Each structure stands twice: as structure tokens, then as C-alpha cells.
Amino acid sequence: MKGLRSRLSAAGVKPKFLNKVVLPSWWEDSIASTAGGLREAASYICAHLGYSLSSLLDEKQKLSFAHTGAVKYKKAKGVTNDDVTLATHYALGVARAVAAAMTDLPAVTAVSSPEEWRKTLLALSEKPWVCLRHILKSAWELGIPVIHLKNLPEGAKKPDALTTMVGDRPVIVVLSARKSPSWIAFIVAHELGHIHHKHLKPGQTLVDEKIDKTSDEKDESEANDFAVRLLTGFSDLGLNSTRSMGIPQLSSAAKTFGMNYRIAPGVAALNYGFTTGFWSVANGAVSLLEKNDDAAVDLSKAMKEHLDLNALSEDSREWITRATHAVE
Fold this sequence. Notes:
five-stranded mixed beta sheet, 328 residues, alpha/beta, single chain, 3 domains, 52% helix, elongated
């Protein structure tokens, strides 16, 4: 077991993460003193991190990942597939475990057009605009789980999100650590755009390492357009200003604009950042507007309300709660 731990540590999976997240709480390394015990440990690591069983058991082999179907990566310049592979396989392991617990949720129905869905969400919302928590609630009720991973291996570069097809069921995994509900709403809506436009077939995964609103790739442009229309009701707000704006001024203007056009003020502030490139001001305004909000709370609450963890084995239940902090 010592040799396996050493090889995993060199790959970015440190002992603390292996103990706290991957291996079950009852695990002791003495179990791996036999070939059967070592194989049991390797089986957990294989299921949870995606490494091939043979590469885990054979010290002469380089650690490699098992085949998990077709994976399409949407990356920023300078980022390679290898940079996000560990996080991707880790996320896929959790997605498969969650999908296995979806027995009480409906078969997936089609995602409506952004215009139609926006009307539905506005009718549900207690605020004048589309809220992240209502997007999450609606997605789960459509049979599309949205999972938030909070524990990741130290050596894993985090993509913003991914969507994978587990059989016929799409599963969205958010890996971004942003606290802003407006940011996370855009990320989730972007992934729902991929599902709406049927960009994935059964067995496929699409990894958005960094969601780029200016991308000219057809799939990304369609997903971005879906997200913007869902959150704002327009194809592109293009918010700008004829005068220099500081954080308080943008925060105030975004509030007024949001109330007038039924758009979350944080979304309006982010659109100003996208349009002008003044990200320090835009992010400062978002922090001011959403200082008491945390998207992770909404993501975790939605999962706990819709996922029956009791439908899983004890090991799988522990694995999901550790990976997502669902017990918090």
C-alpha cells in the first residue's frame, strides 16, 4: 500500500485526500497486506478516481485512467487535456454514483427553450428575477441532477463544470469555487444549454475548463446564448456606461437596471464586466451585491432536497457526502 500511496501522491492525489475522501472511513492500510486487500483498496480508487485497476496494481505500469467514453474538452489557451483529466475522472465517478441513486426522480424530459423556461422560473421566484436556486430546483425536477464538488485532489486543475451522460440521464457537475450565485447561475445555465441543444449523446462527456462568453465554437456559442436568454431575456445586454464607474456606482446602477428589466443585479454587473473588460469593478460590484449569498449553499440544499442518499450503499453514500459536503 505504501508504494501505491507514493505513486498516487506523485500524480497529485495526496495521502490526506486519499484518507478523507476516497477510501472508506473504516479503511486501515494493514488490510492491504494481502493481495486481496490491496485489490480492494485499488477497487475503491478505481471507482472514485477513474484510474485503471491494472495500472494501480502493477507498480511497473504508469498510472493511467480507465476508458469512460468520449470526452470533449473546451479549454482555454495553454491548458491541455492532461491538466484537467484527474478532476474530470473524479467528477465522473461522483456523477455515476449520483445517477445510481436517481430511482425516485423522473426520466429526463426535454429542456425547454430559454424564453419559455424563463417565464416559468420568474413565476416561481419570490424575487423579480431568475434565481440560481429556482434553476437548480427546476433542473432536478426535470431529472437532471446538478452536483457541486468541493473536495478535489491537490494536483487537480479544476474546470468550471462538466456535463456527462450516464445512460440517458445528463448529470451536471459544478467544480467552480465561486461564491457568487450569479456566476454559478450562468455556469449551470450554460451546461443546461448544452443539454437543450443535444450536444451530448449517451456515454459522452463535455468538459468546460473555462466558460468563455466570447467563444465562436458553435456548441459553446449556443450554450452561451441559452444562458444569457434564460438569465436576462435578451440575446446580449451589452451593458456599458458613458462615464467612469466605480464599484458603488455600478452596484447601484445594476440594482436599478435589474428591477426595471427583471434581471438579477449580479448578472447585470457581470454583463458590464464582459462588455467593458473592467473586471475589477464588475467583480467588486458582484461581491457587494451578493455579500450575504453563497452559491455553494444553494447547490448543496438542492441536492439534499432531491437526492435520496438512502438508496445507496453505505460506502457510496459516504463517498458522495465527502465529495460534495452534502452533510453540511
